Amino acid sequence: MDIPYIVDERPDTGLTNVKLGIWLFLASEVMLFGALFSSYVLLRLMAPEWPVGSEVLNVPMGTFNTAVLIGSSVTMVFAYASLQMDDLAGFKKFMGATIVLSLVFMVVKGFEYTHEFQIGNFPWTNTYLAIYFTMTGLHALHIIGGVIVNAYFLGPGSKMWATNKTQFTNRIEAAGLYWHFVDLVWIFLFPVLYLL
Amino acid sequence: MSENVQHHIAIYKKVAAALAVLTVLTVAVSYIDFGVALGIIVALIIAATKGSLVLSFFMHLLDEKKSVPLSRNGIGLIIGSLIITALFFLVIIFVPLMGHADRVGDYYTLPNADAPTVETPPAH
Q1: CA distance B72 to chain A (A)
Q2: Has residue A8 been placed in a domain?
């Protein structure tokens, strides 16, 4: 059985089920990351000592990654806008750029983690590093998930463009909403963990 | 349709520029010594500004106000669910803060690998 209202908007909600579904999923994601931010507040308030993030982590690398991730969000909206303008080649160009920027983010994150491990900073070293690795680790898993989905839509998934343009555009909108959410989480993670 | 998209693209470019400026600002203000409390407030205000730009324009939240049967005063299902989510989010953020402010009864410090040992004052 097909899922109803994935192409046309449902008259009473004014939304496709795709869009309502992804927003409800993102709302649950807010609570998932919210619980970790809440844990961060609790752990920091209860800790007798808390290191300054900029003295432990590499702020230039974190800033670079922030710019990379925001850049990938920008290319993602351009990918979506390309489809709205009936431009599949433009979509592929911008979606490809989004995936490349996501991978750059992961490589930089890999260098940061490797450096921390080399100088003996592990998740069990102290509470600050525990919450740092937990939050950035969960965020990195979200990046990996986004890359897999985006790569599918760039590759085999884009065949749908030939058969159902509207449905494919709706899928990209949903993937984009997820991707902007991942960017949004990082916008808060970066100052909280690196700067404060 | 296409003209509408062109209009959106112009906005995306402006938002991208604003996010770049605010990212630089985030790092720049971290070098100013505001003290811990004010520093946190300033950093969170900048982050919230960036976040609302992403939500409003990249995630098109401003366009989600539609007059349909299941909406009240432009608050449709998406904005409605997000308002409820935001309320729950505030609760889970403020619970530890309120717990910390509460000084009634015994006060415990969580075990912390980095923590210096707290010496018990000698009993008189």
Answers
A1: 11
A2: no
Query: What φ, ψ does residue B75 adopt, rounded to 5°?
Result: -90, 95
Which amino acid belongs to residue B23?
T
Kindly report, residue by residue over B105-124, the tens digit of the pLDDT.
665 666 555 555 555 556 55
Could you read off the pLDDT of A65-88 as tens digits, one per residue? 999 999 999 999 999 999 999 999
Task: Please tell me the pTM assigned to this model.
Answer: 0.91
User: From the list B54, B71, B89, which residue is nearest A180 (CB)?
Assistant: B54
Q: Do A48 and B112 touch (CB under 8 A)?
A: yes
Please give the ipTM for the structure prediction. 0.92
B77 contact partners, CB below 8 Å, separation of at least 6: A13, A15, A20, A23, B70, B71
CATH at A128: 1.20.120.80
- Does residue A9 lie within any of the structural domains? no
Does any domain span residue A41? yes
Mean pLDDT over each residue of chain A, to the nearest integer = 95
Q: Which domain holds residue A51?
A: 17-195
**Residue A11 in domain:** no
Residues A129/B112, Cβ–Cβ less than 8 Å: no
Q: Which two tokens stand for residue B105?
A: 């009864």
Nearest CA in chain B to A195: B30
User: Among residues 41-80 of chain B, which lie with CB inside 8 Å of chain A?
Assistant: 43-44, 46-47, 50-51, 54-55, 58-59, 66-71, 76-78
Domain edges within chain B: 1-64, 67-103
Q: How many domains does chain A have?
A: 1
Candidates B27, B66, B95; nearest CB to A63: B27
**Residue from A95, A66, A31 nearest B93 by CA:** A31
What CA–CA distance (Å, rounded) separates A142 from A36? 15
